[in-house]
Amino acid sequence: MPPQTPQALALAAKEKGNASFKSSQWLDAIGHYTQACVLDRSEPTYPLNRAMAYLKLSKFQDAERDCSIAIALQRSSKAFFRRGSARAGMGSWEGAEADFAEALKLDPKNDVARKELERARASRVREGEKKPRTKPMDISPSASPSPPPASQPAAPSTSTSAPLRRRVPIKIVDSSSPPLALAPSTSVPSKAVSSPPAAADALLNPFSTRRTTTTPQPSSFAEARALREARERDAARGVGTAERQMEALSQSGSPAPSPAAQAMPMQLSPSPSAHPLPAFQRAWRDAPTPYARFSLLARQARALPPPKPFLPDTPAPDFVGECIDALSSAWETDKEVARRVVRELPRTRRWALNVGFLSKGEREAIGRVTAGLGEGGAEWGL
Questions:
Q1: How many CB atoms lie under 10 A from the CB of residue 248?
Q2: SS3 for 277?
Q3: What pLDDT is recorded for position 248?
Q4: How far apart are alpha carbons 337 and 299 in whole angstroms?
Q5: What is the C-alpha to C-alpha distance for residues 377 and 382, in angstroms, rounded to an integer?
Q6: Of residues 108 and 155, which shows the higher confidence score?
Q7: Exposed/middle/buried for 271, CB within 10 Å: 0-12, 13-18, 19+?
């Protein structure tokens, strides 16, 4: 069997990368695309595909670099659009605007590029309005004062380069006067009060009127483990930090805190709401199957009923794809939750960009879901 050429090996690596990308294995796809780039550095498709995988992982700098490599090999609307998306993710609105404009110039029918161009232009203008418009005043001593008006006579000046100064009267105190003595307290009638060595020392003694709060800290790994287990066990009950630490330390056999520490007011944390957004995102990453993710969506929807939003304000493209998988797998089990997801996801920020990242399989899956729910699919690009 004759040996294969580097171009053929690069094409095979690209096909493996495409298969990994379709199954949402972004890191595996990046590895296969990198192998294709090493084998054939003259093909712009390989770095461009790797840039798309980097965008899925929100690695915007790496995506911008690969898009620049692809543009150097061949100018295309897709390369400029993806580089504009990477720069928009980094907050570089001026560069993103230029890339989206170039993508629209190469492909005038690209409606997604037109929407992203308008968003980048609006963001750039909004960022420019936040910059200070006033010029800082020069207050250095070398700065000369402004000349007086013509109607007022100029004040005589003894020096043209010396800065302006203000005369402050100084009161001379006789050094022979005795220092001030502190009066004895009226609550101690018979005891003599000894005067301090100096009045300044008596007047500058530091003191504090603020009452501080302290909580016992673990002194061993066993105590730290007990605190962690107590925190997980009491999360649903809303027990405060200080109360949880006191209970864990008592269970670990450590000596109880002093009565003075027990008398201090405890800092109780508010009881956590059912699946707040950070906890929901952590549970979403740990969900093993699409059915588990749909259960998380249903729990989050019940915890935050309308009109409260229950989805992330700026979802990542991979989150949108995982939502589509969850809906496609279990939308019939709770149609109200599925209908709310279908309606609220298009209201999130950067939705036009996320729609542009949808694959053909994801579009077909959400099309089946929207058809089954009786919802329109215009906002999903269908």
A1: 23
A2: helix
A3: 52
A4: 9
A5: 5
A6: 108
A7: exposed
